[in-house]
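User: My instructor asked us to take a sequence, write out its structure as tokens, and then describe one feature of it. I'm not sure where to start. Here is the sequence I was given:
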Amino acid sequence: MIKKNILTEKKSRVVLTASVLFFVGFGQVYGQETKKDSLKDKSIDEVVIVGSRSGGRSKADSPVPVDVFNLKETSLVLPQTNINQILNAVAPSFTSTVQTNADGTDHLDPAQLRGLGPDQVLVLVNGKRRHTSALINVNGSPGRGTVGTDLNAIPSFALSRIEVLRDGASAQYGSDAIAGVMNLQLKRDTGKLTGQVSYGGYLTDAAKNHTGNWDGDQIQVDLNYGAKVGRKGGFVNVTFSSQYRNPTFRAGVESGNIYNAYNAIEKRAAEGGVNLSSYFTRMDQLNNQQQQQLIGVIKQYAQKVNYFDNAYQQQIQNAGSISALQGLLGNNYTDQELAYRGQDKRDFNMWVGQSKLNNNQIFVNAEIPLNDTWKVYTFGGYGYRYGTSGGFFRKPNQSRTFTGLYLDGYLPKINTDIQDVSLSAGVKGTWDGWNVDFSNTFGQNSFDYTISNTGNTSLRFNSPSKFKAGGLRFLQNTINLDFSKKFDVFEGLNFAFGGEQRHENFKINEGEPASYLTYDINGNPVTDYVNQLRPTDFFGNALPGGSQVFSGYRSVNAVSKNRNSYAAYADAEVNFTNWLLVDGAVRYENYSDFGNTVNFKLASRIKLTKDLNFRFAGSTGFRAPSIHQIYYNTTSSLYVTIPGNPIGEIQEVGTFSNDSQIARGFGIPKLKQETSQSVSAGFTYKIPALNLNITADGYWIKVKNRIVLTDLFSKFKGTNLTPEQQEVNNTMNALGVDGAQFFANAIDTETRGVDVVISHNYKTAGFSLKNDFAINLNKTKRVGDIHSSDLLHNAGLDNVYFSEKSRVYLEEAVPRVKASLAHTLQFGKLDVYVRNTYYGKVTGADVIVQPDTHQIMSDRVITDLSVAYGFSKNISLTLGANNVFDVYPSRNLPVSSNNDQFVYTRSTSQFGMNGRYVFTRLNFNF
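Assistant: Let's start with the prediction itself. The structure tokens for your sequence are:
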């Protein structure tokens, strides 16, 4: 069915109506017990820190919505183990899934809040700004063109809880806090050693094409120990976490062509000790004697291919020229040659699924009192993550594969070394009635690439198989000075003010020359793509340079750029009466690379009754363009499909910074900040007699000048080019590139949504039941015109500046509806956890039938189950499964599957494509 330029598959939906179970359970509990429970509901009375500078308040009384997830209490039964997985399952407003075949993004899962971008949510640790990743997401996945925070660089076992502020907070915390703020609270426990040892893997029929029905197994060890320091409440708490994870394989069976007739003859020659590639370097440079020699060798070994019929053999033997053989030997003989070589099409499958990973982390949280009013504190950690993912298979019948070395082709591997360092230290106390906090927070994240099992095809026989391809590094140092004081005004006034200085550095490190250079027939680097002669394959196609699958960063890409920002804020919370709270904030920031910004926020909570609150907030916000987006640049050889050539060709393409000459030629201005306006309104209602808490909040967010990564611009065509267009072509020719893409403030967007959260607790002696229901509905859309330059608009290139694929990534690649219903039952020594999560439909970015027509991936319900049994107060065992019923997303239509390699789309963020995960976990504390 085609509807509104969308192609939707026939829906086959089986939905477990878990909400019925919830309300049936609620009715039974209500019938059993109607008097007020003497035990307080922790979820109702829980104090939150984020969103307020008054020292915390109960989340029911907060003027803005805040979710609190107590990991310390739930780690026993939670099926997920890292922060992204946990939040994706339990927080409907949060979205993050494992990416595949997206280069470095395979090892860092972009996270989104309330349908906005990964770079529009601010992450704090113990209330201090966390640095972002060095990686910028430039591949075809949700969050394309953004820089997010690597949440998985922090071990979840180090956290006591996670607070998620679902409201704009730039006026309080600064840049990035458009969608909201996440505050990760580290453990402060002392006097005991706690730990977990987990083992699990994917038990799913989808793995049978490769490894039986089991793959992706992983083992994880988590340890936490805390000790007291002194006698005044000092402590040090240390967490160590180590994880080893194998890849999963979710590709189908390769269905495309693999071998041609030339490959078959080449194999027979190799078996006779002859390498056909040694007879030529560039086909059109062979003299007559060399041509005849090559022709003779090909004819000789063609006779050894026994599945060539007589007519075809005769054609080969009668060919009198290289061009005649080139016209004959491209014929497909995949099935026959696979049988001859004893191979299967599965041998040419890609790695599609989660990457291979080895992750080790240590985190420390410490606080030491100096006297009765002052204390010093520090926290931070170090993590090292080594990951391996696969690229697109280099098949023998492709020009990017040098069959002189790789007769059967090869699967190149992308290896990443990710190091993350953070350290925050400060002193806080009281001075003349003021609470004072002075701190310095340092963070650094680096991505280094090593490309293995690959080659620089233009080097032919001289190519290594492994390359150091360079890397990225991001450094951030933040100094904060904060003051706050409570005044006896009205029913209470808290006034806070402070300042912040932040330094950032973004660095691109050059790879080894062979990882990015293209070489000519004499082995010299190509600097003149017009006049220097490049090696070719047998069919005359030029051999591409750079390490296949990921070309290294070039010397011209290497940068080390700095910027500084300075900020001052003031914040006041006034309880005018015991039922009216008003919170106001203003913040001024100055950035060294784009100027000033001032933002405001006003929020209020009205207590209509003791248990019913109404709240609303309005704010302006901003997000400074990340320093990565300003200065990231790279040039690489890409295999692209172009009009008139559906098979595709290798092109040199570049991502260029906004201050480059080529960006100016296209009329693309320098990046400026995104600005936002947001409004939210909602209520909280608690029924103490039933231990029931209900919150509902609606929100509207408009973002102006949103930054996107454009699609690929080609050189201007035609003879009547304007001077500006000719200048662009001249620049691209001088740089040796055929296409270019840029970061640009291309569009305005509008997001509307509703969050509803219902929590219920029932407790008696030896028995407790907790039920949590949450749902998020949101819709993001582009509003207004595309902000392209006159040059692009007049050339009809608006749809490249902001493409249809970019629109889908922005508006429809993440679920617009997501809900979860979780039940936690504690009975004696037994803990049972059941959660159903509903993921709404999403849209794939690939064009299917005609322009602006896409496939819809249907909604799904994922069920998680775990059971824990305590053998003693010190030891327990947990058994469980994520995705118990082995549910998968909708299957890709064949046109989007890349010869059945992408059975499931990689361009959406729903719940992943790995299937049922079963695990066991030993929990202990001493």
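For the description part of your assignment, you could build on this observation: The first strand starts at residue 2 and ends at 3. Try explaining in your own words what that tells you about the chain.
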